[in-house]
Each structure stands twice: as structure tokens, then as C-alpha cells.
Specification:
Elements (H helix, E strand, L loop, with lengths): L14 H23 L7 H7 L7 H9 L3 E3 L7 E3 L6 H16 L6 H21 L13 H5 L6 H6 L4 H12 L3 H22 L9 H13 L5 H24 L8 H21 L1
Antiparallel strand pairs: 1-2
Organism: Rhodopseudomonas palustris (strain HaA2)
Protein name: DUF4145 domain-containing protein
């Protein structure tokens, strides 16, 4: 089933978006169903007008202004009805097709049996909506975590431009924090760090960047020791200290199968890796 303004997986919807996309159509469907099921007790003026066939107009023509709020014609097949809903609900759409065909098949004057048939179809439409809605799940992200999910440049433009290969892991690390997958976030951060370390080794001509981090740190320390004693050397020393801290506190622990991280820890690590990679982007 196609739908107008369909829900995009991986995209956050605000409560306003959800209400705007869902409530108006569903409210009208529910109202129309309720009013039509009342039969002789119909009170909604639009529905009364729609069912008033004394003018000689077909029921399809009389209902068209109402149904246009919730359905549209398929671009390739004018006989096919498409629900204006932002999610796939196949059985609901199939029932809408039945209701619409039934409405289109009746001509004035409409008998009580014909009205009862339509009302039976509408009742089944209501039941199908109630059956299908629970299958569509939404995940609530707390407002303070939305930026972790949506921001593209989580670590800033400098890191994005200098370490483009690390961006997917950085973005996924943020999404994991937003979705409560804190240990998974740290794994992604470590992958981003490995990308940055590779660039570091290339910049300082340290061979075999895929070696164990302890050996890389030893070579980095030697390279820094050979630098002139100035502010740049101090910056590299700070970079070395931060990388050592990553190795000891994060990387080794993360590789352990029972290691888990709390939301506070994952956010702290996220910020520390951000600081390290921004510093490294300036140095190299």
C-alpha cells in the first residue's frame, strides 16, 4: 500500500508531526464510522448530507467530499483507492476498497438492506483499523537526547572534513545513545577512534597502524620525544595521554564480552572522543 507522506524509518517524528500526520485522518475515519453505524441516529451534518439521496445524486457522489479527506485515487489506476495515511495498513486499504465499491454500486433510492450492507462493511473497517494499529510501534526519544540522533556533524565540521571515514560510526554512536544502547555506542566510538589513529600514524610516519595499541603508543611517544620542545610538542603529548586513556579505560574494556556502559558513561566517552578527535584534526 502506498500512503501520502509515509513514515520514514530512521527519522524522528515530533509529537506535533505524529498528530499532524495521523490524528486528523484517523479522527475523521472514526467519526465517519461512528456516524454511519448509528443508522437512523446519524447526527453529523456532513454525514447527514452525504446520506441524503433525495436530490437524486448517487451515494458515491454525495460521500465523495468526505472520503476525499482520507482517500485518493491511484495515479496509475483511477479505480484504485489509496489511503491518505502515513503507514502501511494492507487489510485496512483492502476494506476501504470494498466500502468504496459498495457505495459506488448503489443508486437512489437506497434500500435499508443496502444501507445495512454498507454499515456492515464500515464496521469491519473499524475492526481492521483497531487490529492493525497496535502493530505500528513508535520509539520515544527524550528531548535532551534528540541531538544525538539527528545531528549530522556530531563532532563538528573539523572532524567531519578530516576524518570522513569515521563519520558513519560517529553518527551511529549518537543514535545508540539516543536509543538507550550505550554499550553499542562505545563500540562505535572505538571504531571511529581506530580510524583516527590510522590517520595519526600516517601523519607521523608510524608503521603498521593495525598493531596492538600499546605498541603504537610506544612509537608515538618516541616520535613526540624527538620533537622540539614547543607548544606543538605539548599538544602532541596531550594527544598521547588522551589516546592512552582511551586504550586503558575504554578500548580494552569494551572488547570484554561482559562489559556494559551506563548512559552517563557513554555520554562522557562520547564527549571525550569528540575532544580527542577535534584536537587530532588540528594537529594533523
Amino acid at each position: 500500500m502506498s500512503s501520502a507522506g509515509g513514515v520514514q524509518p530512521g527519522k524522528l517524528w515530533s509529537l506535533f508531526d505524529m498528530l499532524r500526520a495521523y490524528v486528523s485522518e484517523f479522527f475523521f475515519i472514526a467519526q465517519l464510522i461512528a456516524e454511519m453505524e448509528k443508522g437512523g441516529g446519524i447526527s453529523n451534518p456532513d454525514v447527514v448530507k452525504a446520506l441524503d439521496i433525495s436530490s437524486g445524486a448517487t451515494l458515491e457522489a454525495r460521500l465523495a467530499p468526505i472520503w476525499e479527506k482520507i482517500i485518493s485515487r491511484d495515479e496509475d489506476d483511477s479505480k484504485t483507492i489509496v489511503l491518505k495515511l502515513p503507514m502501511s495498513m494492507p487489510s485496512v486499504e483492502a476494506q476501504v476498497q470494498r466500502v468504496w465499491r459498495a457505495i459506488g454500486s448503489f443508486t437512489p433510492p437506497m434500500s435499508s438492506n443496502q444501507l445495512s450492507e454498507i454499515l456492515g462493511l464500515v464496521t469491519d473497517l473499524r475492526n481492521r483499523i483497531q487490529d492493525e494499529l497496535p502493530a505500528h510501534k513508535m520509539y520515544y526519544v527524550r528531548p535532551e537526547l534528540v541531538r544525538y540522533y539527528e545531528d549530522k556533524d556530531q563532532f563538528g565540521n573539523r572532524v567531519t572534513e578530516r576524518f570522513p571515514n569515521s563519520i558513519p560510526d560517529i553518527e551511529n554512536a549518537g543514535k545508540c545513545i539516543a536509543l538507550g544502547q550505550d554499550t553499542a555506542s562505545v563500540f562505535h566510538l572505538m571504531r571511529a577512534m581506530e580510524c583516527a589513529v590510522g590517520e595519526l600514524c600516517t601523519s607521523l610516519q608510524i608503521p603498521n597502524p593495525d598493531r596492538e595499541w600499546g605498541k603504537l603508543l610506544s612509537d608515538l611517544h618516541a616520535k613526540i620525544g624527538a620533537m622540539p620542545k614547543d607548544k606543538k610538542r605539548d599538544a602532541w603529548s596531550e594527544c598521547h595521554a588522551n589516546l592512552y586513556h582511551v586504550k586503558q579505560a575504554w578500548r580494552n574494556s569494551t572488547m570484554h564480552p561482559i562489559s556494559t556502559y551506563s548512559p552517563e558513561q557513554s555520554k562522557d566517552i562520547f564527549q571525550c572522543v569528540r575532544t580527542f578527535m577535534n584536537q587530532l584534526a588540528i594537529l594533523i
